[in-house]
Amino acid sequence: MSSAPARRAQITLGATTVTYLPDGFAELDPAKLFPAADWTAHPGHVDNGKLVLSLGSFLIRTAGRNILVDLGAGAVDLDHPTLGRLKSGALLEHLAGEGLSRDDVDTVVYTHLHRDHIGWTTGVSPFAGTPARNAANALTFHRAQHLLSEAEWRHWTEDPEPGGPSPELILGPLKAAIRFVDDGETIAPGVRVLATPGHTPGHLAIAVEDPSGQATESVLIVGDVLHSAAQISDSGMTFATDVDPARARTARDRVLARPDTVLAAGHFTGTVFGNVVGDGHTWARCC
Asked: Residue 112 and which of 134, 145, 162, 199 are 20 to 30 A apart at CA?
């Protein structure tokens, strides 16, 4: 199993494509991320005492639409004395590699509002220590609608917890651009949002299908339903910031049981695309 950060990869569903755009990576203490995990039962996932998480975004191109799901961690390079290293900032470069500018993006969808998924909301990473004066006033994708669940927005604006999105850097600039979406809502041809609460109260997954119906396979962008491929064989592994671990496991079990589905797990290493096969506990990487 590769512990290297995931590179660009793409799935094609008829005329629709789903492309992983890397932003960076985090090298973190696995005991901090999964406090109760026994990593000796999951060999190959921890490298030199660190658990690597890829950071990035998914670009969906369908019917003339350009949709980004999550926005990485933003431009930042830091070493935390107890947690580990975070280095990112490549998202816009990879978007340009697809022939697109920030003005070409018509929709941003957030699976949830943890800082490693909202980094390019404005020009300042939410991990930045001291943002430049007035740097956070403009949205990076200023022509795009920004979609999320109402439960997620309410959680972070009405009853916030430590480590959430900054009111100045994220919530304020976002307020005029957001639109709430409901479970099962179609946001573009072949693209639906699915409620998967547990990691956060309003967490979403995004299902992508060929709108023509010719391709029978589908892609499910799972956000933080999965952080590590170890959770495929052990879905009971609880992430440190799951607000409701029982609901998070229920969402994970539902996702892992989906037939004919390529899972797009943005924190996985090597490649983010793969299938759950065999006895339902094996991860087969693809693409």
From this structure: 134
**What residues pair up with 283 in beta bridges, in sequence order?**
276
Whole-angstrom CA distances from 259 to 85, 218, 220, 249 are: 36, 9, 11, 18
**DSSP string across the chain:** ---SBP--EEEEETTEEEEEEEEEEEEE-HHHHSTT--GGGSTTS-BTTBEEEEEEEEEEEETTEEEEE---S-SEEEEETTTEEEEE--HHHHHHHTT--GGG--EEE-S---GGGSTTSBSS-TT-SSPPTTTTSSBTTTTSEEEE-HHHHHHHHHS--TT---IIIIIHHHTTTEEE--TT-EEETTEEEEE-TTSSTT-EEEEE--TTS----EEEE-GGG-SSTHHHH-TTPPPTT-SSHHHHHHHHHHHHT-TTEEEE-TT-BS-SEEEEETTTTEEEE--
Which structure tokens are listed for 79? 């070493």
**pTM to 2 decimals?**
0.95
For residue 98, the cross-strand partners are none
Question: Do residues 130 and 174 touch, judged by C-beta distance below 8 A?
Answer: no
Q: Decide: residue 130, CB within 10 A, 0-12 exposed, 13-18 middle, 19+ buried.
A: exposed
pLDDT tens-digit profile of 187-242?
A: 999 999 999 999 999 999 999 999 999 998 999 999 999 999 999 989 999 999 99
- Report the distance separating Cα 270 and Cα 249, nearest Å: 24
| Residue indicated by tokens 């930042």 | 76
pLDDT profile of the chain (287 residues), mean per 10: 88 97 96 92 88 97 98 92 87 98 98 96 83 66 97 91 84 94 98 98 97 93 96 93 97 91 95 82 70
